[in-house]
Here is the input.
Amino acid sequence: MTRRVVLKLSGEAFADPEIGFGIDPKTVDRVAGEVAEAHSTGIEIAIVVGGGNFFRGVTSASQGMDRANADYMGMLATVINALAMRDAIERTGIEARVQTAISIEQVAEPYIRLRAIRHLEKGRVVIFAAGTGNPFFTTDTTAALRAAEIGAEVVLKATRVDGVYAGDPELEPDAELFGEITYMDVLTQGLRPMDSTAITMCMDNKLPIRVFNITEVGNVAAALKGEQVGTLVH
Here is the structure.
């Protein structure tokens, strides 16, 4: 069977590592190049993008903004990132499509499950934007949901750390890095490589999650190809 995967890119994956905000063309081009490298081997790739490099709904809600309104603003931020990623991927010579869970037909297709699968079968990269289209759900949950819907074999979560640790590696430098760990251990230990809704959805649908460091050059391509980078949650 052709390998079909969902790659989850946080908003920070689009930003300059030193600034952590906006879109850095060099960073986006590097990720797109690694996606193209893996795609050339015949892998079907779908991407779910976050929007934290522009706007975080949860953060704004904690500061008094209406949560639903803040989440919709965050969804619009993910569309900006999706368009940037599509442009970078298509400059590598690969066709890409953006599908959004909210209607913005002038710039992207609406999310239609069977159309997304057809794009993948035709060798196109599909980029899912605007989350699930509903407030109160994260883009992590979107990645788990879309992976289940399109029949992906794994969710690849790109982060800024090397994988899942027993503690916060920034606060606990000696924290253990797991090579693999079960869904239940992640939930009971409160490790949160993705939010608990996403972890539970992956567990219910027997979708493994590979958590890896996106800042390491070559990791995106390696993870897409199925190599053992980072931590496997299963």
About this structure: The longest strand covers residues 4-9. Residues 67-90 form the longest helix (24 residues). The helical segments are 25-39, 57-62, 67-90, 113-121, 139-150, 183-188, 196-204, 219-224.
